[in-house]
Every structure is written in structure tokens, then in C-alpha cells.
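We modelled each protein-ligand pair independently. The example shown here corresponds to the zinc ion entry; the chain sequence is given first, followed by the ligand as SMILES.
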Amino acid sequence: MKAAVLTRDSLEISVQDVKKPKPSKGEVIIKVKNFAINRVDLILRDSWLNSSKSSPHVLGTDFSGVIHELGIGVSSIKIDDRVLVNPGISCMECLSCRKGEQSLCNDFQILGYGVWGGAAEYVKVPAHNVLKIPDNLSFELAAAAPLTTLTVYRMLVSKARLSPGELVLVLGAGGGIGTIAIQMVKVMGGRVIALTSTEKVQQVKELGADFVLDYKHDLDWDKKILEFSQGVDITIDPVGESTWEKSLQILAKGGRHVVIGVTTGTLGSTHIRNLYSKQAYIMGSYMSNNREFVEAMQFIFTGQIKPVLDSIQSMERLGDGIEKMARNRHIGKLVFTVG
Ligand SMILES: [Zn+2]
């Protein structure tokens, strides 16, 4: 089958023939229609030289398609069902998994990163990771949805426990996480301050953000926020180092800072007195559990949240797409078509 792969021969991503997977017990084979990339695809590309993963490696964390083949014991889904997939794979046997906290599993893997992903004609996944999609949801939107939506859902609902009326600061607002976070906060009755770059301001406004600040021009964005608010109740942070101190500084009393990524670096200093005097929380979040995945996808299935598509290109353009993400030139999701 055709697949977009990293190999030991080159740092370039290329489309090559690789072996079509066969399903084991409890697994299904999906014929892929579309796939989308996430930050983990970029991280893998950039760390490939030092990686111990076997070559070739098929990329693609998010994807949609139709059920092509069923492994033994699979009865939850039928051939030709239209589906999307939870990209988090766990052992389903350890204590964390049995407690329903799959992303805390020591064997947790992300499709396309730890194991072969969906940038291919066919992909093998556990049947319990698969969810049928409504007839009116396109394969392109279905492929763009899973990783960012499940991540934002865990951050806002399970971790930060967003209440209606609360003020949420979305950092990196033009990215995959940010564009979903703005929409989900609005659906849940919150108010959004979005921080983004100049060229993304207009599109971020159109997503429904109540206030949009341009970090390239509003260098004192933290002071501006405190001019019209008592601080923010929740910060959604996929950025890390560059905004760390300011975003903790402007937390309201009882505020929650939820960090999901470190696109600008991993170190930040924390004003400890501020933290305890405000009784604030700093929380890490990562992917989701299986229940949260199903609940998060309802926002997509009902049309309450619509992933923003930066572009839809052929799978041969995957390398260019990952480079675009590296340069932060994208708004929303980069989607690719197989075939
Ligand atoms: Zn486990």
C-alpha cells in the first residue's frame, strides 16, 4: 500500500510502498480517506535522526475512513461504516486503564507517533478506538477533529471545570488547539480572550473570541487584560515558555492554568507567592481518556464545533505541510487526501 513515511535513508518525508497491515484479535483495518497532522508529527520529524523507531515509519495522528476488514471478535462495527479514530492507544489492562484513565497508562501511545498512523491507504487500530461518524459529517472535517478536540475537552471540562460566565485566555489561538478551544468555551457559556499573531487576528475574531490581542503589537497584553478584567479564570496553554510568567501573573483568584504543550520552550519561572495567595492551580493535561474522547466528539457530530481547515492537499504534500506547521504559518488544521 502507499504511505507517507519517514525512513532511515533521508530526512525528507516521502510516499512509498509499505506492507499493508493485517488485523489481530480485536482490531480493524480502516481504508483511509483523509488524515490530518498535529504537533506530534512535527516533533517526530525533528527528532527522527535520534529516534530508535523502526524504519519506515508511517506518520498521521488523526484520520477518517471506512471500515475495510474486521479482526476476530469485533462486533461493535461493520464493514463500510464511516469512522474516525481516537489516536490514543493504551494497554486497557493496567490499573490506570481499568480506572478509565487511559492517557495515564505507562504504555500509552499516539497513532502515527508510537505506532504506524493514518498517512496511508490502510491503517490498523483497536476496534474500541473507532467511532462511527454521522452521514452529514465530511471525511475532511472528521479527520481534522479528534486529537485537538479530545485534548481541549479534557483541559476545559475535566481539568479546569469551566463554568458559564468564566473568562478563559486561549494562548496560541490560531493553532489546532486554539481554534477548537475558542469554540468550545463559547458553546459552554464562557468568555474568550484570544492571544495570537497579527496575520491570524481576523480569523480568530470570526471564531467568536470576545477579545483578541496580538502578541506582536500588544507587548503588554497582560496589563491590557487586567485593565478590563479581574484576571482570567482559566488559561489554555499550548505555548509554554514565552508566555508562562505573564499568563500566571494574570490569573484571577482560584484561577486554573492548564498546560498542554511547549511550542516555545520548556522552562518558565513561577511567582510562588502569587500562586498560593490566589489559591491558583497549575495543571498538566495530555490527550484524554476513552470516555472523554466519545464526549468530545459529540461537539463535532452535532455541528456545535467545526474544525478550522487550513488546507486540504494530496498526501504527497505532507512534508510541505509539516514545514508550514513548523513555521507557524497555518490556521487550524492541515488536512491531506489519500489516493
Ligand atoms: Zn494501561
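The two ends are 10 Å apart (CA to CA).
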